[in-house]
Amino acid sequence: MQLKATLLGVGVVAGLSLFATGASAATTYVKVGQTNHNFLKTKRTIQTTDEDKQFKLTIPKGTIVDVVETNWHGDKKGQVHVEINLQRVSYKIRGKHIAFQTDRILATTKTFKKVRVPQYVQYYTTQKVYPENVNRTRVADGNLYAGLKVPDIYRQLKLTAARLYVTSDGYLEYYKSAPVMYLQTTQIPTTSAKITKVKRVPGKGLTMLYTKTAVPTAIGKRVSKTGNQQYLTTIKRRYRSSATVFYRGNAKTAVDSIRLASLYKVNDHDFFMNTDVVFPEY
Length: 282
Description:
Blueprint (H helix, E strand, L loop, with lengths): L1 H24 L12 E5 L3 E4 L6 E4 L4 E6 L11 E4 L6 H4 L10 E2 L5 E3 L21 E3 L5 E3 L13 E7 L4 E9 L11 E11 L4 E6 L9 E2 L8 E17 L7 E12 L2 E10 L4
Antiparallel strand pairs: 1-4, 1-7, 2-3, 4-5, 5-6, 8-17, 9-10, 9-17, 10-11, 11-12, 12-13, 13-15, 14-15, 15-16, 16-17
């Protein structure tokens, strides 16, 4: 009887051990979200490619990335895949490539960690979406262009303006002359400075970004001769908007779409961000 009890006990322990092993081996996935901007932090170095598998990319461990969830019908039940938006990581990661997304990456909790919206990108609303039936699309991507409104003609290489952008991995990138709202071409930043400190005054629409690396006087100023916070760039949201109306063909009575821009001051210079596209009902 004692031998049977001992064997029974061993069997129970072994069974529990197998159960625990199986539980710990179960794959878990991050909860990404359905907004336009979903921020994850890499927990390991990721070797991947662009979505067309034309070139290789390395995403270092500890990098905050902006992702979109992309699950396919053939995926296993419960799996979560994401693509990293390459237009929202720093130039040192994306390089001269103009691809918009990485290849699909399995979003396990061993690879990614869900994080809050970084303070340095909170100069615009990243979590806003509209219902599908309101004929309005949220397009805010963080790109600020010198000026007061979306130009009547844009997305042309010959139409250029200063561009400022804050990447998901915390770099302040400034382009002295960039095609307005046209990202389908190689763009090398005039300045790419790692953000070392952030101060925000939400009630006044202020986002203050400090860097050790020098920034042009067009967007910032030097506030210290030593330390990691030597230069300051202030982005101030004006809580004012402008609108640019686009017509169908040459008919000035048939509105095709309206592009809304949110107005900003960067170091007291006028900048705008295209935030919404409105499609009037015909």
